[in-house]
Amino acid sequence: MSQTKDKLLKYQHLKEDIKQKIYNGVYTVGQCLPSERQLSEEYSISRMTVRRTIGELQDEGVLYRLQGKGTFISATKIMQPMSKITSFTDDMRARGMVPDAKILMLDTIPANELIAEKLQCKQGADVILLKRLRLADNEPMAIETLYLQHAICHPIIDKISQGTSIYSLLKQELHINLVKAFQSIEIMPLQKWEANMLGNDDLDSAMYIQRQTFDEQNRAVEYVESKYRGDRYKFYVEMSGA
Ligand code: 16G
């Protein structure tokens, strides 16, 4: 076997083994991983290979490093289904977590071409712009930029400014049922301030989600652009056969 292949196998073995131990509960959330020296002895691989493996698992969100303290096992990612139109508030509550929203911007602006197209309104029409940092159990999860048609949603602006859940306001105050949405996910670079706001300066990209949501009358009620932490979230879909 070539040296490179052998090295790759050993590195892959270490990586899979760490993941397996987390899966089995041998390593638990918040536990400190054995030192680089211990791992290199245990798996008979160089410390450089150990470091590279740990670095990759850090990038994948499986491990995190605390300066001067060591490397620790991360909390498991939030598994978010994509088959239902749910709100951040309800999603977090259903998991027993405490949702929160820090308002970064709330304004009424004229719709540009893109927003007008997404909200199916006239270019220049008033739209409500709401930028929020979404938190669960005080941990930042996503930055959301949400646009609502002013003509439909102006009665709830005051309550929006108090940090109330948008979906609960739409339902309870405006009797709007959201029944259809188009959603896409792609990778997008994060600005330094965004990574900082998301609580992890090492993040250089995030999952960028665009959602256009419709009510029973087929009105485009909201258009949202969000950046979700890829190290804390996993989106999934359930599929059925053709
Ligand atoms: C979720 C939705 C977002 C919606 C928000 C309402 C995704 C990707 N986005 O974050 O479109 O505006 O919930 O949350 O799921 P709220 O009712 O807690 O304000």
Number of contiguous helices? 9
In what range is the share of β-strand residues? 25-35%
Apparent shape: elongated
Largest sheet geometry = 6 strands, antiparallel
Question: What is the mean pLDDT?
Answer: 94
Order of neighbouring strands in the sheet with most strands? 4-5-6-9-8-7
Low-confidence stretches: none
Work out the radius of gyration.
22 Å
Q: What pattern of helices and strands is seen along the backbone?
A: HHHEEEHEHEEHHHEHEEE
The span between the termini is 43 Å
Helix content: 25-40%
* Small molecules held by this entry: 2-acetamido-2-deoxy-6-O-phosphono-alpha-D-glucopyranose
Structural class: alpha+beta
Number of strands: 10
What are the main properties of this structure?
9 helices, 10 strands, alpha+beta
Tell me the layout of helices and strands:
Blueprint: H1 3-24, H2 36-42, H3 47-59, E1 63-66, E2 70-73, E3 78-81, H4 88-94, E4 99-110, H5 113-119, E5 126-136, E6 139-149, H6 150-153, H7 157-161, H8 166-172, E7 178-189, H9 192-197, E8 205-215, E9 220-228, E10 233-236
Parallel strand pairs: 3-10
Antiparallel strand pairs: 1-2, 4-5, 5-6, 6-9, 7-8, 8-9
